[in-house]
Write a sequence for this structure.
């Protein structure tokens, strides 16, 4: 009898701890916002708690599209961020979804958004003016029959590509058109990559997960940077590549109608503040245009300052071209001064070989960069105006990028750090991308 009571007690203890664990797990993710309703064009401040995650994603959707999104880097499972609401979105309820890659938990909130400046045929709002002068505006959810309701279910699901957990940094997803001139390339024949355009080398090769989609694992990057995306085949063909949205875009099937009880003075005051905010961020918004890379869209993105180190290693040889006689083309500079680099040909493709102290007869090619962008067409590089180049840095040793091993690195750094007038590769995408802060 005593033994039976002891077993029963042990089971109760185990059940108690299991209940505590389940209770704690239910609060493993949480999101808080700073207002009960928003004007289109206002910033939304988000506080996120997400257990066992490095980056949280916040997206605002209605039934038709993704309206806005932001990424929040987490420290100890907590972080905060700003989600800028577009000034032209329709009035109505939106769903704010917050999630992390590799985590099935999705936190959702219904968010009322009111647009005073733009009427839209997609508006789903009923206006109710409050006559009492000191009352605050407030939203109410309405069912299809016009009755008020207090809750609404949101259906959520993450795609398979978002099930890959982010541990060290942000994962960039890209789409590649794997057909060129009637030739179809397979997973093992394509090398996708991402480089940061600037006076440092931050270069990442991606992993193909099928014939047209790749994931590029990055680390050590925060904020906005001009980036270069490329996809090259083992035969030297550049395939069209395009950045994919980092957001899941979990659109609700339907949303309740927004009954907005507004106090005029309060709404007008916030509208004036919103318009001043929009004026302040207009240059910042312009530079984040996806799919463009020109002086108009990237004027305010400052390239990373010059740092010759790669993987904390200084160059074994460095040439400051201000200290040498100027030539018109880089070809002449390399021939006259850069004795550590040998030009060779293999399979009708020219390549650089770094003749380091331990090189011997090792003729494996070196990896070549121009302002952080990988260079495959050495003919274009050597014809480039050398007066635009400030440094040539040579690194000895072996370097692994993706599945390829290179013997040495040759890095060219221009005076602007922005590929000024450089004849870039075909089908390469240049854009400004904001990494989680």
């Amino acid at each position: 009898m005593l033994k039976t009571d002891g077993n029963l007690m042990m089971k109760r203890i185990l059940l108690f701890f299991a209940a505590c664990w389940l209770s704690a797990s239910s609060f493993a993710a949480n999101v808080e916002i700073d207002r009960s309703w928003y004007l289109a064009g206002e910033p939304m401040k988000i506080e996120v708690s997400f257990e066992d995650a490095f980056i949280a994603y916040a997206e605002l959707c209605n039934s038709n599209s993704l309206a806005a999104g932001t990424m929040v880097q987490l420290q100890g499972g907590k972080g905060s961020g700003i989600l800028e609401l577009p000034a032209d979105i329709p009035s109505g309820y939106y769903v704010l979804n917050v999630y992390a890659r590799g985590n099935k938990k999705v936190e959702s909130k219904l968010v009322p958004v009111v647009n005073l400046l733009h009427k839209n045929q997609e508006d789903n709002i009923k206006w109710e003016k409050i006559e009492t002068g000191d009352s605050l505006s407030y939203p109410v959810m309405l069912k299809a029959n016009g009755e008020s309701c207090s809750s609404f279910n949101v259906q959520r699901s993450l795609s398979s590509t978002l099930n890959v957990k982010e541990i060290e940094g942000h994962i960039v997803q890209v789409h590649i058109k794997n057909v060129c001139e009637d030739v179809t390339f397979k997973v093992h024949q394509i090398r996708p990559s991402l480089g940061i355009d600037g006076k440092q080398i931050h270069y990442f090769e991606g992993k193909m997960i099928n014939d047209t989609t790749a994931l590029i694992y990055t680390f050590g990057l925060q904020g906005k940077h001009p980036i270069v995306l490329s996809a090259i085949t083992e035969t030297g063909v550049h395939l069209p590549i395009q950045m994919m949205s980092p957001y899941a875009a979990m659109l609700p099937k339907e949303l309740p109608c927004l009954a907005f009880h507004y106090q005029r003075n309060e709404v007008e005051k916030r509208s004036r503040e919103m318009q001043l905010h929009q004026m302040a961020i207009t240059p910042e918004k312009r530079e984040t245009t996806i799919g463009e890379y020109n002086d108009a869209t990237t004027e305010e993105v400052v390239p990373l300052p010059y740092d010759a180190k790669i993987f904390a290693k200084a160059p074994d040889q460095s040439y400051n071209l201000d200290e040498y006689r100027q030539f018109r083309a880089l070809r002449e500079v390399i021939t006259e001064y850069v004795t550590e680099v040998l030009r060779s040909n293999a399979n009708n493709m020219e390549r650089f070989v770094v003749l380091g102290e331990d090189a011997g007869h090792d003729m494996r090619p070196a990896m070549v960069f121009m302002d952080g962008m990988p260079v495959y067409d050495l003919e274009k590089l050597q014809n480039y105006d050398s007066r635009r180049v400030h440094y040539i840095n040579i690194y000895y040793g072996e370097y692994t990028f993706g599945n390829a091993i290179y013997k040495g690195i040759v890095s060219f750094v221009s005076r602007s750090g922005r590929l000024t007038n450089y004849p870039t590769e075909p089908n390469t995408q240049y854009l400004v991308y904001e990494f989680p802060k």
